[in-house]
Write the structure tokens for this entry.
Amino acid sequence: MKSVFLLFFVLVEVICCEGCWKQERETLMSLNSRLGNGLSSWVDNTDCCQWVGVECNTTTGRIAKITLQSYIGPPWHLNYSDFLIFKDLKILDLSSTRLSNCTRVAQGLKNLEVINLGSNNNLDNATTILSCLDGLSSLKSLSLSGNLFDTTSSQIFQIVLEKLSSKLLHLEVLDIGYNNLTNEILPSLRGFRSLKELHMPGIGLDSDLHIQGLCAVLKNVEILDISYNNFNDTDIASPLSELSSLKKLNLQGSEITQRSIHNISKLRSLEILDLAENNLNLWPRENHGFAWPASLQHLVLRANSLNNNILYSLNGLTRLESLDLSINNLKGSLDICGMSTLTSLKILDFRRIID
């Protein structure tokens, strides 16, 4: 019996090393060596589960998340065969790592659910991007934000998105924010029917062109971020009303006027609405048919130069829990009669400046 226990402990020692699996630790060390040892906390004979950028499955002790963000060095080539050892790997963050190309493996990383390829300026053509996503059929979340795609390369990006939509059938979260694109990119997103979150901040949208067509097919989207675009008095709320499941909408810094959101009440499932830093300053005392969605729980109207008239529009928001009216032009004695029905309100911010 003693020999059995001794064999067990020897096996544990072979497989694990200081809290993490030995083979996985050695693979990370090898990867760091090829990257010029730029990840200084990855030190031999220490628990790799405690390394910066590494998280482990608390049940199995295997690595579940790897972040290479802190890597600073020359452009590099990723070979996915290096990651086959990580059986529990679900999250791979390669953002801001100067990644230039990838080589897939036949088996693929079947358990990988989240990959961040954002802010990698060397991923500048369809072939390289697709090479880094080939074989990742289990992906649920993908970020391609901040890769400096622009109007000259938008056609390439359209091809990429169209091909990915036919392969990433389980994708629920997509971020293409902060690329210099236009509304012409939107039709290429129509194949991502399983999306629940779509992030497109700062991509150069300047009208409602193609938005209704996109919203008509993305029926499962619950979170939409189209902040820091320029809708410039466009009636953006009407096409967005096609998103029947939408719960959270971010329109911050997008040149929104009252005309832009006149039909916002059509978003009947909306719970969180961010309209900070827009052009809502000419709010009339009379609502003229305008109403907020009755389902709203959180409303941000910060920094819009709003006057006291905005208070009259808030009547009837019985589910509203937080209201941000900071950095506006509310003056004098405030008539809060219109707010008397805000029976669920817990947080009210009237501050003129943010601390």
Notes: The longest strand covers residues 63-67. The helical segments are 2-15, 22-34, 126-131, 154-165, 211-217, 237-240. Residues 2-17 have pLDDT under 50 and may be disordered.
